[in-house]
Design goal:
Blueprint lengths: L6 E6 L25 H7 L5 E7 L7 H7 L4 H14 L17 E5 L8 H15 L8 E3 L13 H12 L3 E4 L3 H4 L1 H15 L10 E3 L16 H14 L4 E5 L8 H4 L3 H19 L4 E3 L14 H15 L4 H15 L5
Helix pairs in contact: 3-4, 4-5, 5-7, 7-8, 8-10, 10-11
């Protein structure tokens, strides 16, 4: 098991109470309303061998058109960059739930970026992120524009593809969030097309790296996977995506795709129920291209405060069932994330 292996949690979200209304999805009755601080995250991971985490943007309000015009539509994502800079430089505002001693825990962060706006707007935006990030800029290892809730066709428009190529030229990754469970196989088919076009004709050392979030959010309520069109489409897409050596997969985001009754069962029972999906990912990507990620605090919804530890036990069991050697364990619990994001250990 992973008891002595240092852990890099490759996907978490944090936000202070003072900025809660800048979140695009925020509603007062949301189960994720209220501050979710680094202090709370450390409590969730207590007892583990956590070495650090990678922060992912939390979908702040934005306006692409206003951003292209005068930059005003990028205000809230840039405020998030400033929030991460305070964590990384150990300069919290009162009540934000982190201290100077926590500064080294954030090994990388992935801000939002306006990829649909095209490379010219992206250049301007990245320059603004550099200015806002200041001394924390080296920890910006890439960007995300969440695609799971966007109209069909968004990711394969020319402007989006050219923005991806720009990230590749700059040595920055793209964190990819799509949702097969709610959007169907079409998003998976578009993802394959997007990656092919983003790499077409591009020198190997300039091809953008894609880090895929949450296993592409498959429907984990399926009972008979052998005859399920949804599972078969997902499995086919995973093997297709894995053929590109610039793609990596996060073992994360499982709980939201499960039936509520399954979430409440033991880690062993959950592992047994979702093992068809985990087995596909392992066969397709191998230990060197999959990484542990908790998706905290989203993982707590419907599961409770023990969600981080519960997901860790599920991934622990995967490692045990696969009879991983020490090197494979090291990759899944942190090495793959360091490699994919080009983070110096």
């Amino acid at each position: 098991m992973a008891s002595n292996t240092p852990i890099i949690d490759a996907h978490i979200h944090l936000y202070p109470e003072s900025e809660i209304e800048t979140l695009a999805w925020y509603k007062p009755d949301s189960p994720l309303a209220g501050q979710h601080s680094l202090e709370e995250y450390k409590t969730a991971a207590e007892g583990s061998t956590l070495k650090g985490f990678i922060f992912l943007e939390t979908d702040r309000k934005n306006d692409l058109e206003a951003g292209e015009k005068d930059g005003s539509g990028w205000e809230y994502p840039l405020i998030e960059v400033s929030w991460l800079k305070r964590i990384i430089t150990g300069q919290p505002k009162p009540g934000e739930g982190h201290t100077a001693d926590d500064a080294s825990l954030c090994v990388a962060y992935i801000p939002w970026a306006p990829l649909p706006s095209g490379p010219a707007a992206m250049e301007k935006y990245i320059d603004l992120v550099k200015q806002e990030a200041g001394e924390s800029w080296p920890k910006v290892r890439g960007f995300r524009y969440l695609l799971q809730d966007k109209p069909n066709g968004t990711m394969v428009k020319d402007e989006f593809i050219e923005s991806l190529k720009l990230l590749g030229r700059k040595g920055l990754v793209f964190d990819l969030g799509v949702d097969q469970h709610n959007r169907g196989r079409f998003q998976l088919e578009e993802t394959v097309e997007m990656i092919d076009r983003a790499h077409d004709g591009v020198p190997e050392d300039q091809k953008v790296t894609f880090i895929i979030n949450h296993m592409c959010k498959p429907d984990l309520s399926i009972y008979n996977v052998q005859t399920s069109p949804s599972f078969i489409a997902w499995r086919t897409a995973m093997f297709t995506l894995s053929k590109c050596n610039k793609t990596y997969m996060k073992l994360s985001g499982g709980f939201p795709e499960m039936p509520d009754s399954l979430k409440q069962r033991s880690p062993e029972d959950i592992f047994d129920a979702i093992s068809p999906w985990l087995s596909v990912l392992l066969a397709a990507f191998g230990a060197s291209r999959i990484m542990f990620a908790s998706d905290w605090p989203v993982c707590t919804v419907g599961v409770g405060d023990g969600a981080w530890a519960k997901w860790k036990k599920i991934v622990d069991r995967l490692c045990w069932m696969a009879s991983f050697e020490e090197e494979d364990m090291r990759m899944i619990w942190g090495g793959t994330a360091l490699k994919a994001y080009s983070i110096e250990a």
